[in-house]
Design goal:
The complex is a heterodimer. Chain A is mainly β. Chain A has no helices and eleven strands. By secondary structure, chain B is mainly β. Chain B has no helices and nine strands. The chains are: A mainly beta, B mainly beta.
Chain lengths: 117, 107
């Protein structure tokens, strides 16, 4: 069965860096598009980043462009999100999501990132 | 940047019909998807490709589309349907765009 398990969240100071991981099981990343979606406390869903199934294309939301980087390790079947120059407004639960055509068919449980001094 | 607009809240009594709209200029050209999110849980897909219901989703959930507006309809609302609902679509520049979300309250 499909499972996505995020890790790497925590408390970080403004300007700091953090790398999130998403361990996938029950399927292989090489066959699926993958996304990161975040949700600030009490707020709505905010799409963050995308990587195509073959790794050929990556896209980012305007608010994270130039600061975040999505990547994957096929040998570990793991998705990553490298987050640099973090800001207080990046505080959110970050979800790893498998893309099926144009929608998310499987979501992880999320990992909380808190940016605060 | 492209935006999808949803009403912040909708309230209905049990057994009534709830309708949640989502508006966006690109919706006539792109499919829309609807997710249900309950507190402290990840979102769950309830409608895909505007009108299709995934397996396991109750028949009371349905979707429709007209021009630049798509609608999620929940017929015979039950207390367990109280949740936040998000529409999601795309445009030429962005793989995914989410609406702001609608809080459904069952009175």
């Amino acid at each position: 069965q499909v499972q996505l398990v995020e890790s790497g969240g925590g408390v970080v100071q403004p300007g700091g860096s953090l790398r999130l991981s998403c361990a996938a099981s029950g399927f292989t990343l090489r066959n699926y598009d993958m996304h990161w979606v975040r949700q600030a406390p009490g707020k709505g869903l905010d799409w963050v980043a995308f990587i195509r199934y073959d790794g050929s294309n990556k896209y980012y939301g305007d608010s994270v462009k130039g600061r975040f980087a999505i990547s994957r390790d096929i040998s570990k079947n793991t998705l990553y999100l490298q987050m640099n120059s973090l800001r207080p407004e990046d505080t959110a639960v970050y979800y790893c999501v498998r893309g099926e055509h144009d929608y998310g068919d499987s979501w992880g449980q999320g990992t909380l990132v808190s940016v605060s001094s | 940047s492209y935006e999808l607009t949803q009403p912040p809240s909708v309230s209905v009594s049990p057994g009534q019909t709830a309708r949640i709209t989502c508006s966006g200029d690109a919706l006539p050209k792109q499919y829309t998807y609807w997710y249900q999110q309950k507190p402290d849980q990840a979102p769950v897909l309830v409608i895909h490709k505007d009108v299709e219901r995934p397996s396991g989703i109750p028949e009371r959930f349905s979707g429709s589309s007209s021009g630049t507006t798509v609608t999620l309809t929940i017929s015979g609302v039950q207390a367990e349907d109280e949740a936040d609902y998000y529409c999601q679509s795309a445009d030429n520049n962005t793989p995914w765009v989410f609406g702001g979300g609608t809080k459904l309250t069952v009175l």
